[in-house]
Amino acid sequence: MDDPSSTSKGKRKRGRKHKAAAENHAPASPVAATAADNPAPAAAGRRGRKSRRHEAPADADGSRPPSPPRRGEAKPVANGGGDAVVEAGGPVGWDEVARVVPSMDAVVKVFCVHTEPNFSLPWQRKRQYSSSSSGFIIGGRRVLTNAHSVEHYTQVKLKKRGSDTKYLATVLAIGTECDIALLTVDDDEFWEGVLPVEFGSLPALQDAVTVVGYPIGGDTISVTSGVVSRIEILSYVHGSTELLGLQIDAAINSGNSGGPAFNDRGKCVGIAFQSLKHEDAENIGYVIPTPVIMHFIQDYEKSGEYTGFPILGIEWQKMENPDLRKAMGMKPDQKGVRVRRVEPTAPESGCLQPSDIILSFDGIDIANDGTVPFRHGERIGFSYLVSQKYTGEKALVKVLRNSKVHEFKIKLATHKRLVAAHVKGRPPSYYIVAGFVFAAVSVPYLRSEYGKDYEYDAPVKLLVKHLHAMAQSPDEQLVVVSQVLVADINIGYEEIVNTQVLAFNGQPVKNLKNLVSMVENCKDEFLKFDLEYDQDILTTHCIPSAMSDDLKT
Question: What's the CA gap between 238 and 34, in Å, rounded?
C-alpha cells in the first residue's frame, strides 16, 4: 500500500508532514492531490496524462505579505468600486495593504491525524501520521478545507491566525469528487472576533488572485499572488473526476491545500487544491472555483449530507468527421456527439442507445467537439452542464436516432464504477477461508499492491476491467484472491496473487458479500473456486505459432 509520503507523478496533493515526508493523502485516479503537512498517498494519473498531473497545495505559514505599493501607484481598495491612487506625500502603511485581503483572519490552519487502512492487509491499519493544511471560515459556523486534508482522519484541530489555541473540529461532510470538506467547531470561543469569508463570482481571465494559507517554509500565514490564466474542465487528482477548475500562476505549495483564493476585492473565488509539477512548467496552480464550492455547500444544505456530482452514464465520441455525420443521418445544421456505450447501471440506460446523437442538454446545443458556449469568447465541455445539476434532478436531452429527433427527461445520478475510485473512509472488506484471502478490487487497493504507477505495473487483466469494464448491476464488484496464507490445507496454491474469482461451485460470483454467502452456506465436501487464468500461452507471449516454419513441412 502507498506510503503516506508517496505521491503520483505530475498532479499531486500538496501537504506538510510532521513525522514523515508524505505528500499526498488521498486516493485518486486521473490526477493526484496532496493534503496538509502530511499528505496522504497521491492518486495515480491516467495513462498518457503524466504531463498534467498536479499537486494540491498545502498549508504552511511562512510568506510575508506583498510589499506595499509604490508611492503614486494605483492600489486596489477592498470592497471598493475601483482603484484608489495613493498620494505621493507619504509611505503606504501595512494596514492599507492588508485591506486587499480583508478576510485573512478567517483563514485557519488545519491539523489532522490520519490513520489509513492497509488494503494489502485489510484486517489492520497503517501507522497514524500527522499533517497540516489550510482552511477558512464561512457563514453558519462552518469551515471549508480540502477533502484530502482530512482523509482517513481520526482527529482534526483548527488554529486561528495569531492564536496559540487549537480547537477540536467535527467533520460534517467530505466531498471526495470535488475535494472539499466541511468542518465545524463546537467551542464558541473559536468563532469570536472573526468575520466569515464572502464568495465572489467566477473570475475572468487575467483577473488578479491572492492565495492565502499555511504552506511549507514557515509557521505563519503566507500570501502569494498571480492571475487567472485558464478556466476549463480539469482532472481532480483526489476526486478521480473532471470538474470546472481555475489555473493560476500564483505559487501553491505544500500546505496551501484548502486555503482560499481572493480576488482584488477581497472576495473568495476558489479553494487552492493542487499544482502542476513538471520539468517544463513553473508556478502552475489549480483552484476549485465558486460554482463547484457552492454546489457542494448547497448539496449538503439540501440533503444534510454530500450526495455527489451527477454524470451522464455514457461514453461518447466527437462528430467532427463529415462522413461520420452523414452516415449518422445528421443534417448540415445539426451538431452533437455520438453515444458509444451506455452504463448499464445508469438511469440513461432506459432511454439512450449506442449510436444515438446527443444534440442538446437542457436546451443548450452541443457542438461536434462536445463543447457548449460558456462565456464571451469561451467554450467548455458539456459535462459542465451536467455537473451543475444535483443528484436526482432531471434534465431534458435531445437525441437524434435513425434521422429522427427524440426528447427524453433523464434522471441524473452519480457514477457507479466496477472498480471503485474511493472507499469513502470505510475500512476495506475481506474474507478468509482455508487461507485464501478474498478482497474487492478498488483503486486504493491497486495502489497499495502496485504503487503509484499501478496503471503500468498491475496485471493487464485487472487494468482492462478497471479502465474499460462497466458494472452490470449496482452492487457488482471485481473479487480477487488477494493472497494465500500458507497452511497445510492449501499446499500448492501459495503463489496465487490478485487473480479474479469468476465462480464458486459453478455459480458466478457477483460481489464479495455474495461469495461469502455461498461459501458459508455450502454443504459440499469440496470448495471449488473458478479463477481467471490465461490458458493461451502463445497469445500471452505474442508467439504466432507453436513451431517454426521448417518444422511444419
Answer: 8
Residues belonging to the active site: 148, 179, 257
Q: Which residues contact 24 (CB under 8 A, 6 or more apart)?
A: 4, 6, 7, 8, 12, 13, 15, 32, 33, 34, 35, 39, 40, 41, 42, 43, 55, 56, 148
CATH for the stretch 314-412: 2.30.42.10
C-alpha–C-alpha distance, residues 320 and 401, integer Å: 18
Q: What is the pLDDT averaged over residues 431-438? A: 95
55 touches 43 (CB < 8 A): no
Cα–Cα distance, 69 to 88 (Å, whole number): 11
pLDDT digits over 419-432, tens only? 998 887 778 999 99
Going 203 to 205 to 210 to 213, the CA torsion angle's sign is positive
| Residue-wise pLDDT tens digits, 295-318 | 999 999 998 999 999 999 999 999
Report d(CA 287, CA 273) in Å as an integer: 6
Identify the helix (H) or strand (E) that includes residue 520: helix 512-520
pLDDT of amino acid 368? 96
Q: What pLDDT shows up at residue 75? A: 39
> What are the DSSP E strand ranges found in 249-375?
260-262, 268-276, 285-289, 314-317, 337-342, 357-361, 364-365, 371-373
| H helix runs in 267-420, sequence order | 290-303, 322-327, 383-387
pLDDT at residue 29 above 90? no
Architecture category of domain 430-551 in CATH? Alpha-Beta Barrel (3.20)
pLDDT number for residue 22: 36
> Mean pLDDT, to the nearest integer, of 201-217?
91
CB atoms within 10 A of CB 294: 12
**For the chain, domain boundaries:** 100-306, 314-412, 430-551
Task: Examine the pLDDT at 534 and tell me if it is beyond 60.
Answer: no
pLDDT band at 24 (very low <50, low <70, confident <90, very high): very low
Q: Rounded CA gap, 145 and 177, in Å?
A: 14
Q: First vs last Cα of the chain: how many Å apart?
A: 53
- CB count in 10 Å sphere of residue 526: 6
- pLDDT of 351-393, one tens digit each? 999 999 999 999 999 999 999 999 888 899 999 999 999 999 9
Q: What is the pLDDT of residue 542?
A: 75
pLDDT digits (tens, 9 = 90+) for 67-86: 444 444 443 333 333 333 33
Yes or no: domain 100-306 corresponds to CATH 3.40.50.10240? no
Q: How far apart are CA 494 and CA 480, in angstroms?
A: 15
What would the grid cell of residue 364 be?
443548450
Q: Are 289 and 245 in contact (CB under 8 A)?
A: yes
Instruction: Give me the DSSP letters along 8-69.
Output: -SSSBB--EESSS-----S--SSS--B-SSS--PPPPPPTT-GGG-EE-------PPPPPPP
